[in-house]
Each structure stands twice: as structure tokens, then as C-alpha cells.
Design a protein that fits this description.
alpha+beta; Immunoglobulin-like; 4-stranded antiparallel beta sheet; elongated
Amino acid sequence: MNGFGPFLGPFLWFKLYWAAWALLLGVIAVLFWVRGREPGVRRRIALARARLRGTTIRMAGVATALILAVGGFVFYNTRVLNEDPARNEVGRPQAEYERRYKRFEDAPQPDITAADLRLEVYPGEQAVDMRGGYRLVNRAGVAIDSVHVFLDRNVEVRSITFDRAARAVVTDEETGYRIFALEQALAPGDSLRLSFDLALRPRGFRSRGIQTVVVRNGTYWDRRWLPFIGYQPRFELDDVGRETETPMNDLVEIGVFGPGDGLGEPLYLQRHRIRSGKQTIRITVPRKPARAGIDPWRKLIDRDRDDNVADVTP
């Protein structure tokens, strides 16, 4: 098991910060502790000053130094190296993404027809280096003069290049949207190669939303960390700030499982192109199934995994 995983470090730093405050408040309590009948506030303050010496002043100094040092370290990690938006600001990047680039939803874009990837995983650092490329083919029927690329904002972009002359005309770090203008338009049926060098590396630690994609005992990797081509409605927000439902036209895993713990023994696990509307898929398995589901492992469709898999009734 992974134990506390990546959460232990931030937990201890926050606990140390609040322990320093507790120590300082304890020192203040000792200074103003009532011993008998002390007449008036001025007398109490005078006694506190008299008690502020030796061990007491050293403890107060240690507590103050810890508050400043640890508090500054925590602030630098959670507010400088990472974003910690207020509750009313959560979802702002997605909202800006929709507001700025929704107009490109129907813009013709090339399709990904082939991909080669090299992922170097560093579990101890919770990091991944991603290098590879896409073969993009223009199946739109019209010439394409620009390629739109969307990337998760947590992914560090080291380079994105094409095998033909192109220049970045939009690099929106807030939303992760980029537009590359091609010097020579991509004709219908023509293809080009997009190469990328990316990295997912934590910067310090967060106060919330700590990524668990890469941990010491395993890696849970999915499509969203790689470049998308064109505007992606799936990353829009609905009226209450959640990801909205969008029409599907994606390759999604369909699984059939036999009896057993968890999902059970996999009897069938293949990708099928799932489109909006009714769709019938016939599957033959070697043994009697117990459960079947769409996207049983990857959680590509939604966050609620419970409604992705259902028991099979004879």
C-alpha cells in the first residue's frame, strides 16, 4: 500500500506551523497566569513583564522564529509555487477557456491518426517526462491554416514543434490553450507531425488538490495529461462550476468481468468508439459474466465510478 503517500509532508509542515502558534500561546498564558488576587490590568501586565525572562523568553523566541520560518515556507509553497484560489475563483481557468475560445469549437482541425510516446516515470519525485509526437491528417475537406493545441495547465511545456514552418500566435498559460499558425496551410488529405516534450513535476506542495497521478507504488495515467487537438467542449463548466456533459465520440474501454473480488476477473476488455445516442455492441465471452461496464478503470466518462459498472442478469 502507499500509506500516507504524498500527503504526509504537507500534513507535517502544517502541523509544525500550528504547533509553533500553540507554543507561543502557551507562553503568553504562562505570563498572564493568575496567581492569587491580582488587582487591575496594569498590575497583571507588570507581572507578565517581570516573568518574561530566562526560559520563558527563550521559548517565546523559538515559537516566534518557527512561526515566521515555517509559515513563510508554507506560504511560499502553497501561494507562490502553486495556486490556492478562493472558493469563488475555483473554476475560473475553465470559464475563461470557454469564454475566450468557444468560437473555435467548429474550426476545422486535423485528426490524430498515429502517436508515439515515451514516458519516463519517477515515482520518488512524483514526476513524469513525456516525449513523443502525433501524426495529424487533414480530413476536414478544407485547408487548415492553424493547429489548436490544448494542454492541462499543470503540465510543463518544454517544446511543441511541427515538421513544417509554424509559429505560436496564442500561448495562453492561464487556460492551457495554444494556437500555431502554419506558414503553408495543410491541404485536405495532407499530414504533418507534431512533436512535444512535456513534464509533469510538482512544484513544492499544495494546501489542497495534491496530485496522486504518480505515487511510489503505482502510476494512474490517462489521456488528459497529453496534448489535445482543437477546442475540447469536455473541459467547459456548467452553471454551477462543474465539468459539463458533452456529446461523445471517443474510444472508451468496455469491460466484462467474471465473479470475484472488486470488479472480478476480466473476461473482455477492449476499446470501442462510443458516440452520442443509442448504440448496440455485441460481445461474446468464454465464461458466464457477473458484471459489465463502460470505462471501468479509467474514469474517462465521469467521476462517479459506481454507475459505470452493473451486474449482469441472466
